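Table S2 (text version). Query chain:
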Amino acid sequence: MAYPAQLGFQDAASPIMEELMYFHDHTLMIVFLISSLVLYIISLMLTTELTHTSTMDAQEVETVWTILPAVILILIALPSLRILYMMDEITTPSLTLKTMGHQWYWSYEYTDYESLCFDSYMTPPLELDPGELRLLEVDNRVVLPTEMSIRMLISSEDVLHSWTVPSLGVKTDAIPGRLNQATFMTSRPGIYYGQCSEICGANHSFMPIVLEL
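Corresponding structure-token output:
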């Protein structure tokens, strides 16, 4: 769960989110080093009168500033592709949950069980119990097992929606007429919050998601 003035990600609750956070730190360090080098060179050029005219025509310098960015891009691309394939990897699920987006609520169906479906609406502020979160609580939470592979089948009945839970590293669009799939596995029990991340209309910000694991 996020807290006020938070600058980083929420605590990871799934292996995929942990990998995404590692990749973020890896890429951010590369960006930091590049920015520091550029700032150092700019400050050096502004504070010194020494110039090397032969440097501007040096073949070696041109070779270095062509190859070095290519190497840096490879160092970013390889981990990125690895995580991309991990996110799209299809395993044998222990449970399948079908999610349908509506204006403006979610409906869920446990397809492995007969007639087990329900709608999930945001709890109005006047009906909140002490300790519950405004604009994030729902009347019916989704209950899922921990440390088991969960398959989400996500679609929409009307307009574009996006089923998103930041702590799990899951963000999948709900598109009318198309069935999208997402697979995740939680590493620890807890209550995880998310929201629709697509601008789907006037009540777009009132489509919370609550998972109880």
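Notes on Table S2: The helical segments are 15-47, 59-87. The chain has a mean pLDDT of 90.
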